[in-house]
């Protein structure tokens, strides 16, 4: 059932709340160490330790003599030993959690570096493509250039038509008659219709 991708995984909860599922045996110890170290850094832990110490001190101070288990006269030796034991275990757990976090940070930094290299390569590729497009667009005729060329061709055609009209009339002067009128007159005169 855990191999199916369409079903959610069951939540793995530890002593101090939710923790990730361990994939290897070393990861299980590290994940538990992180969960405990994370719990040590919460306000809830401080409240629990404060309540525990207040209860311990109150019980061993105000309770009847035969029910006390840690003497005030000896300076609450058992409480001191328990707190020292807790501190001696919490320090290595916190260091282990920090080492795992350092490893994760190192992997994240490597992934960021690779992602940055890919982004730089993509950006350089796009810059080269943009430059090649600019070079290619320099050879492409613009709208204004095409309009200018068409105007020049139109003027050349008008000049040729004027020259043909002058040649047909033979006088070399333009009398203001349009080309179709002249052609119609010349066709009538020759009998073509």
TrEMBL record:
Keywords: Membrane, Transmembrane, Transmembrane helix. Residues 179-193 have a biased composition (Basic and acidic residues). Residues 161-193 are annotated as: Disordered. The chain crosses the membrane at residues 45-62, 74-96. This is DUF1003 domain-containing protein. It comes from Serinibacter arcticus.
